[in-house]
Specification:
Blueprint lengths: L14 E6 L3 E8 L2 E9 L13 E4 L2 E5 L6 H24 L3 E6 L6 H5 L2 H4 L2 E6 L7 H12 L17 H18 L2
Parallel strand pairs: 1-6, 6-7
Antiparallel strand pairs: 1-2, 2-3, 4-5
Length: about 190
């Protein structure tokens, strides 16, 4: 898909956008004004009967047996999913010579995707944004990237007038404007 001209075009560089959920992930490659889905990562939910789960116990240096513990099944499934995702990200980075990585992951997994990645991918991360972005269009993800690259202060932020003349009065005016927008629902 063609990237709209007002968004980053990523000329002469390959950028990987990793969008994760708890059971599914999408990999977008943006380069030379185009963005496309180049991979999906899926980990279907485990099928346990009744209250089974994942559990292993060991002793004296050897595995003694396995059983079931209801609480641990989600943790193990998510760990396997992120490991699978990290391997796929590494494979794509090598295949497409990716220079930058942008990660969009759920808030409840905060940092888990980054920790699962190999060092090559970790050192190329430019942005990590938390939220549910799995069904978000690629153009909106690119807008988030554009805003993160924008170094200008946000004029709607009262802290943006910190060092200007009449800063206290400007801060009050901005605060009233923000309150008015909140009241009218904009």
């Amino acid at each position: 898909m063609q990237i709209p001209y007002q968004l980053p075009q990523f000329n002469r560089q390959n950028v990987l956008m990793v969008v994760m959920g708890s059971q599914r992930g999408l990999l977008y490659l943006a380069a030379d004004g185009m963005v496309d889905i180049i991979g999906t990562i899926e980990q279907p939910a485990d099928r346990y009967s009744d209250r089974e789960g994942h559990f292993l116990h060991s002793g004296r240096g050897m595995l003694l047996g396995s059983g079931s513990v209801y609480e641990d099944k989600n943790i193990e499934r998510v760990r396997r999913f992120f490991q699978k995702a990290a391997n796929e990200v590494y494979r794509v980075m090598r295949a497409y010579d990716v220079q930058h990585v942008y990660i969009f992951e759920p808030a409840y997994t905060k940092g888990a995707v980054t920790l699962a990645l190999r060092p090559l991918a970790r050192e190329r991360i430019k942005l990590v944004r938390y939220g549910n972005y799995l069904h978000t269009p690629a153009t909106l993800l690119l807008e988030f990237i554009e805003r993160s690259n924008d170094q200008r202060p946000d004029p709607a932020d009262p802290a943006s007038v910190e060092e200007s003349e009449n800063a206290e009065e400007k801060r009050k005016i901005l605060a009233h404007a923000l309150e008015a927008q909140r009241v009218i629902g904009r």
